Amino acid sequence: MAGLRQRRVRRQRALRWIVVTLFAVLTLLPLVAMFEFTTRDGWDTWRVFFDWKALGETYPILWTGMKASFWLVLLSVALTLVLLVPTVVWVRLRLPRLRRVVEFVSLLPLTIPAIVLVVGLAPVYAWVVYFVGGSSVTLFLAYTVLALPFAYRSIDAGLSAIDVRTLSEAARSLGSSWATVMWRVVLPNIRSAVLSAAFLTVALVLGEFTIASLLNRANIQVAINQLGKSSATMSVAVSLAALVLAFVLLFLLSFAGRRRNRERKTS
Amino acid sequence: MTAPTTGTLGAPTTTAVRGGRRHRSRLRDLLGVVPFFVYVVIFLFVPTIVVVVGAFAGDDGRPTLDNISALADDYIVEAFVRSITLSAATAVLGAVLGAVIAYAVVTAGPDSLVRRLVTSACGVLAQFGGVTLAFAFIATIGFSGFVTVFLKDSLGIDIFSGGVWLFELPGLVLVYTYFQVPLMVIVFLPALDGIRPQWREATESLGGSTWYYWRRVAAPLLAPAFLGSTLLLFANAFSAYATAAALVSQGAPIVPLQIRSALTSEVLLGRENLGKAMALGMVLVVALVMWLYGLLQRRTARWLD
C-alpha cells in the first residue's frame, strides 16, 4: 500500500510539473511577444507610457477612457452592493417566499449575453440621456445588471454561512432598529462575501467592452481598441500593462481570500 | 428555509384586527424590495422586452414575422452555424485541456504557490481577456508578431502562406481557447476539490487499480461537473463579443458581429429590427444551454459539496 501511494505521489508530481510548465510557457508567450513588440523600435513607447502628462496629451482618448473606467468602477460597485445586499438580507428575513424570485432574477443576466442586452438597452439609454445626460459614466447603470449574477452568488453564499435569522432576532429583541441590524450585525458577518462581490464587479467593469463600444461611450477597453487603429505599439503596451496589473491584483487577493476562509473555519 | 417562526409573518391570526395589521406590515415588508425590482425592471426586463417585441415588429412598429423569417437567410444561418461550431470546438478543447490543468493544480494542495499563480493567471485571462487578448495575439502571431517574425526569419516558415487565418474563424478558435481553458480551470477546480482522497484509498484497499479508480469512481462522479462546465464554456464563447470585435474588422463571420453590423450600419432598409431577431435567437440558444447546465449542476451538488 505504502509503495503504491509513494509511486502515485511521484507520478502526480511529474504530471504536475509537465502540465504547469506547459501552461506557464503558453501563457507567458503572448506576454513576452507583447513586450518584444513594444520594444522593437526602442523604448519610446514605454517612456511615453510612464510620462503621464505626455500620455494624456498624445493620446487623449486613453486618458478619457481611464477616467471613465475609474468612475464606472466606483459607481457600479456602489450600486451593486446598495441594491443587492439589503434586498437579499431583507428577503431572507422577512420575505422568504420571494427568495426564489430574487435568485432567478439575479441569475437571469447569465442567459442574456451583453451583445443582446445592448440591443435592448439603446432605447433605455435614450431616456437616460434625456434625464441625466450622455456621459460615459452613466454606463454604471447597465454594468450593475452584468454584475448581478456574480455578486448575488457571492453574497448568497456568505449569508448561507451565518445564521442571519437568529442574529437579527437577537439584535431586534435587544431593541436595535433594522438599520442597525443591517449595518452593525449582518454586514460585519458577511464582510468577505461583500468584498469578493465588490472585486468581481471591479474586474467585470474594467474588462467590459461590448456595451460601452456599441452605445458609443468610452471606457478603458474602448480606448485601447481605438488606439489600436492609430498606434499599434501603444495599444499593445497598454494591454500588456492592464494584463499584468490584473494578474498582480488577483494574486494578492488570493492571499486575502484564503486567510479569511481559514478564520471563518476556526471560529 | 420556508418556516418563518417569528415576527408578524408566521404568527397565526384569528381576529380581523390582527389580520389587518399583518396585512399592513406585509405591505411594509414588500417596500424593502421595491428599489431592487424597479432597477431590474428598467435595466433588465425592459431591454429584454424591447428585443423580444422588436424581433416581431416591422420598421413601422406593426407586428410581422419578416425579421424571424429573415433569420433563414443564408448569411445569417451561416453565421449561426459558425458561432455554434466555434463555441462547441473551443468548449470541448477548453474543457479537456482545462480539466487536465485543474487536476495537475489540485494535486499541489490548496494553499500552494502553484495553485495561487495558476488560478490568478486563469482569472485574468478568463474574466479580463476581451480586447487585451486580441492585441496580445496581434503582437504574437499578427503580421509582424513575435512568433510570426521568428518563424519566418529563423526557420523560413510563413504561417500566413495559406491566408490571413488569424483574423478569420481559425484565428478565433485559437484566441477563444486562451480564455476558455482558464475558465474551465476556474469552474472545474471546486469539483475536483470535492473528490475525497478517502475514496481513492477505499478503492485501493479493495484491490482496485488506478485505472479502475478513474473509470469506476472518479469519472462517474466528475462527469456531471465536467459536462456542466463544458456547457458553461459553450455559452461563454457563444456570448463573447469583445475579442472577436477587436480582431475581426472586416466581415461578420459570427452572430455577435452580425448584430454589430446590424446596429452600426443602416444599409438594409426594412431590416431595422433584424438585429433584434438575431439577438432573440442568441438568447434562445444560451437559455437552452444554461437550462441544461442547471440540471447538471443540481446533479453535481448531490455528490461534491
Automatic annotation (TrEMBL), chain A:
Residues 66-253 form the ABC transmembrane type-1 domain. It comes from Asanoa hainanensis. One of its GO terms (cellular component) is plasma membrane. Keywords: Cell inner membrane, Cell membrane, Membrane, Transmembrane, Transmembrane helix, Transport. The chain crosses the membrane at residues 14-35, 68-89, 101-122, 128-152, 192-215, 235-256. InterPro entries: MetI-like, MetI-like_sf. Pfam families: BPD_transp_1. This is Putative spermidine/putrescine transport system permease protein. It is a multi-pass membrane protein. It is found in: Cell inner membrane; Cell membrane. Belongs to the binding-protein-dependent transport system permease family. GO terms for biological process: transmembrane transport. The keyword Cell inner membrane applies.
TrEMBL record, chain B:
It is a multi-pass membrane protein. Signal peptide: none annotated. The lineage of its organism: Bacteria, Bacillati, Actinomycetota, Actinomycetes, Micromonosporales. InterPro entries: MetI-like (IPR000515), MetI-like_sf (IPR035906). Residues 80-293 form the ABC transmembrane type-1 domain. The keyword Mitochondrion does not apply. The chain crosses the membrane at residues 30-57, 84-106, 118-151, 171-192, 213-235, 277-296. It comes from the Bacteria. GO terms for biological process: transmembrane transport. Belongs to the binding-protein-dependent transport system permease family. CysTW subfamily. This is Putative spermidine/putrescine transport system permease protein. GO terms for cellular component: plasma membrane. Keywords: Cell membrane, Membrane, Transmembrane, Transmembrane helix, Transport. It is found in: Cell membrane.
